[in-house]
Amino acid sequence: MTDHDVAQDPDERRLSTREAADRLGVKPETVYAYVSRGQLTSRREPGGRGSTFDAKEVDALARRGGRREPSGAGSELAVRTGITLIDRDHCYFRGVDTSELAAHHSYEEVAEWLWTGEMRRGLRFTAPHDALTAARRAVDALPAHTGPMDRLQVAVIAAAAADPLRFDLSERSVLDTARTLIPTLVAALPRRAAGRPPAQAGAEEAGAERAGDELGAGGRRAAELGAADQPAPELAADDGPLAPRLWSRLTSEPADPPSLRVLDAALVLLIDHDLAASTLAVRVAASARAHPYAIVSAGFGALDGALHGAASGLAHRMLLEVLDRGSAAAVVADHLRAGRRVPGLGHPLYPGEDPRARALFALLEDVPRARPALQAARDVITTTARHKEWRANVDLALAVLTVATGMPAEAGETIFAVARTAGWIAHALEEYDEPPLRMRPSGQYSGPRPPQPLP
Questions:
Q1: Alpha helices of 85-147 — where are they, by DSSP H?
Q2: Could you give the CA distance from residue 29 to residue 341 in angstroms, rounded to a whole number?
Q3: pLDDT per position as a tens digit, 103-143
Q4: Range 313-336 burial, b when 16+ CB lie within 10 A, else e
Q5: Sequence-distant (≥ 6) Cβ neighbours of residue 16 within 8 angstroms
Q6: Which of 60, 158, 240, 299 is the most exposed place for a label (fewest CB within 10 A)?
Q7: What is the arithmetic mean of pLDDT over 60-80?
Q8: From the centroid of its chain, how far is CA 99?
């Protein structure tokens, strides 16, 4: 490295053609198309093999909406983001392996770090009284058969109505909203233990809280909580770590530290996954300067699709059938004969095994009650092993957790929705810093050519 290289301002460094293309989200040949149009300037360095580009100029073009192929037909909208990178069967949040984050930090800690860059040990999210009261009243008014996704969608709208400052899109206000909205969504869901005797329900909730303290961040015990100052059961259910709070909304079975560790890790691993359908919907809403509650509502709307958030429920039902019939081969054969994909297998972004599944399976090894469901999942994987693209994905690992702990089939979707809310907020914060209304791809009209007669 030369002295000139050491003194060079990072913002003034030159980009290669490939680096410029990556920043713009286009092909390398498109970069030269921008040059020919006068939208970029290139320069050949002495002794260099190719053209270089000014980083500030490339970024300015990206902000103006240059991140799409100028040819029109067949173009793809690309969005530059600093949140998630998926590369060679690994997933990274801001350059850090998500499996490592899940092993050492709690959901709240990772969410806060993702939003602010600050890792705050022992952080707890709490729900404000007014928002929680509004959300619970709205959710309680729904029919008894209402599913959790419908309850979450109603809860976020009710919480928004209770917040007169929701239209303040300053970073500080958005972060305050995020820290309170997520626990409000969890606390608005009915407890699965509600039908049990009060003493038993309270004991289970307190047990979940104590297990949550042992969970902490990757297994450390919260030093400030001791047996002498345990909170009352009602407080314990809604004022401790998020994982045990969510647990009591998903199952009436008692919590234990290994199971809660899996749940908390799942929350971390599902925070974001690049531009999934729901995340793109969120960024479109944020581009129109929708407030944080509205962008979460947009995410819930897309997540509710059968091909997105509901995938773990299909894997859940498959594992139950495998356990009931005692044969993964018969169940897999039935799926294929009916022309259906085998749930919980394959992911377009990972040639091999989904790293989120790999991390959760490793943690599930420490959960004794998960052994039957874990073996059923392994049987499915073994049965389909000759299809190299059919590796386990996170939905199969979630299904093992939900089956093993007596959770309903839709519990995986609930975990997914709560977890992803933090990622949606991170994407909204990025999008609020971009020019408004930029998320508008060009339509290609395919209707009758005008003029047409008046109908």
A1: 98-104, 107-116, 129-140
A2: 37
A3: 999 999 999 999 999 999 999 999 999 999 999 999 999 99
A4: bbbbebbbbbbeeeebeebbeebe
A5: 50, 52, 53
A6: 60
A7: 59
A8: 14
Identify the helix (H) or strand (E) that includes residue 53.
strand 51-54
Q: Helical H runs in 384-455?
A: 394-404, 411-432
Q: What is the rounded CA–CA span in Å between residue 387 and residue 396?
A: 16
244 touches 212 (CB < 8 A): yes
In single-letter form, the type of residue at position 159 comes to A
CA atoms of 157 and 294, how far apart (whole Å)? 8
For 139, the token pair is 């959710």
- Short-list 244, 262, 242, 291, CA closest to 424: 291
Joined tokens for residue 439? 């998320």
Tokens at residue 348, please? Answer: 């377009």
- One-letter amino acid of 38: G
Higher pLDDT, 47 or 390: 390
Tokens 């345990």 -> residue: 230
Closest CA to 438 of 25, 156, 14, 21: 25
Q: How many CA atoms lie within 13 A of 131 on its CB side?
A: 25
Backbone angles phi, psi at 86, to 5 degrees: -110, 120
- Cβ-based burial of 362 (10 A; exposed 0-12, middle 13-18, buried ≥19): middle
Look up residue 126 and give its two tokens.
């709490």
At residue 84, φ and ψ (nearest 5 deg) are -125, 135
Residue 44 burial (CB count, 10 A):
10
* pTM value surpassing 0.70: yes
Q: Where are the alpha helices (DSSP H) in 8-106?
A: 17-24, 28-36, 55-61, 98-104
> Distance between CA atoms of 438 and 318, rounded to whole angstroms?
42
In angstroms, the CA 346 to CA 348 distance is: 7
